Amino acid sequence: MPNFFAYVVFFSWPVIMAVLFKRLPADRALVWSLLGALLFLPEETYFDFPVVPTMNKETLPSVVAMLLCLFMVPQKIRFFPQSRLATMLILGFLISPLLTYLNNTEAVFWGPMGIPGLSWKDGLANVLRHAMTLIPFVLGYNLINNAEARKNFLTIYMIAGLIYSVPMLLEVRLSPQINLWVYGFLPELFGQQIRFDGFRPVVFMRHGLNVAFFAAIAVLAAATLLRGQTAGGRARYLFILFYLFVVLVFCKSVGSILFAVVFVPIIVLAGVRLKGWAIMVSALLVLTYPVLRAADLIPTKELVSYAAMIQEDRSLSLDFRFFNEAMLLEHASKKPITGWGTWDRNRVFDSETGDDISVTDGFWVIVIGVMGWVGYISVFGLLTLPLLRLWRWRKRKAEFKEPHIVYGIALMLAVSLLELIPNATITPMTWLIAGMLLRCRPQDASDIAKPEHTAEDESTAPRLHVRQRRGQKAAAYDAPALQTHQRATR
After folding, report:
1. Residue 188 and residue 371: Cα distance in Å, rounded?
2. How many angstroms separate the CA atoms of 264 and 217, rounded?
3. What is the pLDDT along the chain (490 residues), one digit of tens a residue?
């Protein structure tokens, strides 16, 4: 149970965010607010009111950030992007809880255990929860809207990785104890953080897997910044990249390490074409994985055998994940369109004892079980849309200002979505990256070096053009009269 200091830090965060928005540019204040909350606020600390969704370390900073942007940032906030498809997916995500509620008003019984049906309050609360989930996406789309802001985002992520590496390395040596020392509790079972005869760092996050994946994204951010450096500035970023990768290895998460090993060379060495293919393949795999899994087209036995080559415990864990996926998919197939809803109705229980016998690891299987295919298409369609648009622009040979930054962030998003297949590590930062990437617009090569024009300049440009043409015509009409006047005065 969190101690008193945990609640003091939790309720102080809105004040800290207000100071950040007052002293920093809006884009940097937004990233520090959401990322700082993810890294330093305590888990299991929240307040809950009727109907209103739970306010925790993910939802509270998002809501406060929206309020600060509405009242402290002069820029007007667009709640829907210019893309019609993105708007349709957002509306689908907001409406899906109502469809789920209408299809789940009946109770569910598993032997002696029963789960009540959903009420209109559940539907309304989930609509509000989905709206709060989309806040980082909306703010990322609005505030991180140029090359400088995107570069600031990468720099902040890299600096956060360097700062967090200190307590991470401390816990690698002493075991995960910092959360217990500071906030008075351990967020997960201690035994789950023991790997390869050592410890996984947890610090203030929920699980060692979350910390490892954060370290992997920080490595990708450092690699993206390294890609854009000149010869004189590469040594420093190369050292930071190497250091963060060593910290990632100490996290002892095979999946996160593999992501870094595969994608860092692509970011640093590959050209736009190979990066585009990596982005496209990742997006298609994320979108089609549930269909391939349901059709038994994923080579699960071979993957378990490969995991056994690394460690026997890893193969047993992977086989356990695949078993639970199959069981949960079979249960979800009974309500494929709208899902089973919340209150653990998407889980599987023993038909005789009523005990919970399922484990929901992957985020995709949770979404399908809770919201059905309507929710899955809305969520993963919205998250992969920026990647698909980037592929379309690459096919049209459109150019970006600082393309290495755009494609590096796109690969960070691709890795974040691939991670959602085995784990449920989605955070507000995932939505923030998707929103900022959706805002990226290509430029023609001839326009990159041109100065930026304001909206007022663009609106007056046609009028000035007309005036110039009128002046040219008037000079042409007056030329004969001017010649006659000159002859008369000689």
Report:
1. 27
2. 10
3. 889 999 999 999 999 999 999 999 999 999 999 999 999 999 988 888 776 788 999 999 999 999 999 999 998 999 999 889 999 999 999 999 999 999 999 999 888 888 999 999 889 999 999 999 999 999 999 999 888 999 999 999 999 999 999 999 999 998 899 999 999 988 877 777 777 778 889 999 988 899 999 999 999 999 999 987 776 678 899 999 999 999 999 998 888 999 999 999 999 999 888 999 999 999 999 999 999 988 888 888 888 888 787 777 778 888 888 899 899 999 999 999 999 999 899 999 988 888 888 888 889 999 999 999 999 999 999 999 999 998 887 766 667 778 889 999 999 999 999 999 988 889 999 999 999 999 987 763 333 333 444 333 433 344 334 334 334 433 343 444 434 444 444 4
DSSP per-residue codes, 198-216: EE---TTSS-HHHHHHHHH
Question: What pTM was computed for the model?
Answer: 0.87
Helix, strand, or coil (residue 35) = helix
b (16+ CB within 10 A) / e for 361-373: bbbbbbbbbbbbb
The H or E element that residue 412 is part of is helix 403-419
